[in-house]
Amino acid sequence: MKESYCETCNAMRPTHVDNRAETFTVRNTEIRVETAARICESCGEVVFDRELDDAKLDQAYRQYRAQTGLLQPEEIRAIRETYALSQSAAAKLLGWSPATFTRYETGSLQEAAHDELLRRLRDDRHWAHELFARNGSKLTKLQQRKLRQALESSELVVSRSNTVLVDALNAVYSDLLYVAGEDGNIPCQRALEVVERRAEQAGIVLSHE
Ligand SMILES: [Zn+2]
User: Fold this and answer.
1) Which residue intervals of 18-137 are DSSP H helices?
2) Residues 58 and 111 in one domain
3) Does residue 59 sit within a domain?
4) Domains held by the chain: number
């Protein structure tokens, strides 16, 4: 049994670990989590335990992200890896301070504005190309090569939300092909060209029934 300092008893006390509900305030939002805490055997109050307290905060942040629709650390990491970037290279590409990805991927709560840009990086391949054109020279030659390969690769993961968009785009594409082909409808021909060009820019392979 571990002895810990209890602030309530103002003494070293035997302790045990038990589940306790606790409320955290994360960015003005109350987050209630139930996690393991170290309890004083004498007074039953929670005592300080670095490991357990870190885990609690971690869980509060996870819950906050889930509640507010922010990306979780492993999702941020997955987006970065999709582009074959190291943590520092990804930060350079986005114009962020070098340790930003390291912090986010190890559980720090991300800025809402950063979260939005990460989603855009995930969903908008055209924008990723633009970023590369703008900031690519800040990366090492090796990182530039890896990123270029990832951008060119057809294996770039199409995210779930994007899959829905691709399906919708394909449905529109099929209809346009049908109408444009039937009677040579000029506005449809033009719309078809726009869809084809945009799809190519976004790296989407169109298919029709
Ligand atoms: Zn106590």
Assistant:
1) 50-68, 73-82, 87-94, 100-105, 112-123, 125-135
2) no
3) yes
4) 3
Provide the pLDDT for residue 158: 55
Q: Is the full-model pTM beyond 0.70? A: no
How many whole angstroms from 4 Cα to the centroid of ligand 1? 9
Is 128 a member of any domain?
A: yes
| pLDDT digit string, tens, across residues 115-173 | 999 999 998 888 999 999 999 999 999 999 999 988 887 545 555 557 778 888 888 88
Q: What share of the chain is helix, strand, coil (3-state, %, to 5)?
A: 60, 15, 25
User: Residue 128 C-alpha to ligand 1 middle, in angstroms?
Assistant: 55
Are 80 and 58 in a shared domain? Answer: no
Residues with pLDDT less than 70, the chain: 154-161, 182-183, 209
Ligand 1 center from residue 107 Cα (angstroms): 31
Domain carrying residue 194: 160-201
Strands across the sheet containing 11-26: 3-6, 11-26, 29-40, 46-47
Query: What pLDDT score does 196 carry?
Result: 86
Give strand pairing partners of 4: 13
pLDDT value of position 209:
62
- The pLDDT assigned to 157 comes to 52
Ligand 1 centroid vs 39 CA: distance in angstroms? 8
- Calculate how far, in angstroms, residue 41's C-alpha sits from the geometric centre of ligand 1: 7
Q: Residue 121's domain is classified under what CATH number?
A: 1.10.260
